[in-house]
Amino acid sequence: MTSPSPAKRFNWSNLRIRVASATVLVPTVVAAVWFGNVWFLALILVGVALLAREWAEMSAHRVALGVAVAIGAAVTISVIVAYLGHYYITWPVVIVGALAAALMARGALERRADAAYGVIYIAPAVIAMIWLRRMEAGLSWTLLLFTVTWFADIFAYATGSLLKGPKLWPRFSPNKTWSGFFGGLVAASLGAVGIVFLSQALPALPDLHLVWPVAAVVGLLGGLATMAGDLWESMLKRRFGVKDSGDLIPGHGGMLDRVDGLMFAAIVVAGARLLDQWGWLP
Length: 282
Known about the structure:
Layout: H1 12-35, H2 37-59, H3 64-83, H4 87-104, H5 109-134, H6 138-163, E1 167-169, E2 173-177, H7 178-201, H8 212-240, H9 255-277
Helix pairs in contact: 1-2, 2-3, 2-5, 3-4, 3-5, 4-5, 5-6, 5-9, 6-7, 6-8, 6-9, 7-8, 8-9
């Protein structure tokens, strides 16, 4: 059995590249979220195309184009159907798309399952984000989602790099630490509380009508989901024998490397929004 890779030293050069990339990506995402409608839909569809390509390259490299088209088409159709408000049709589309991707993938049954999983992996998260943005107070809820995810990711990276300490799960992600884990969770909770206060103070933002302890819990759960999504993608990359899902974003790797936590957090925050809609949150 081989020992896990040693943790790397803090790379200031990589940090500068990550910051430079973020200065381009963050305003673009915030603008699309803010304006909503076709702008947010366009952002999601571009992301779907990039994610489908990266997943196909990782899971079925020999027939990547066919698998990417199958995954991208299935998820795109489900997103557009969700955007039009016909949510009950989205899930049959997802199932058919997963089967189509499996048929496109040649070789062992395992490879076919990997291709099909690409649809199941991507679709629920993007459907949840479309639903979240189009609901009442959707602007504030979607900003809360991105804030929680970004705060968890940024502060986990910063806290873990500065404080170091015991490793969180060295077998799959040797650079993540428990200090970064808890730092990211605290930041995610504070970020959610901050969005709630902003929604109450700024006329441009719809009021979330959440008390701050509930917002803190939503942020905590969203932060946990972000960490889980990051670790899950680390396991997937280990399975496929790749370091990054791609090289699209300097300092971050591929699109999947950038949104792995967001995909899990979107489900959790959408679930919280659903509970709020049902009147189950204070």
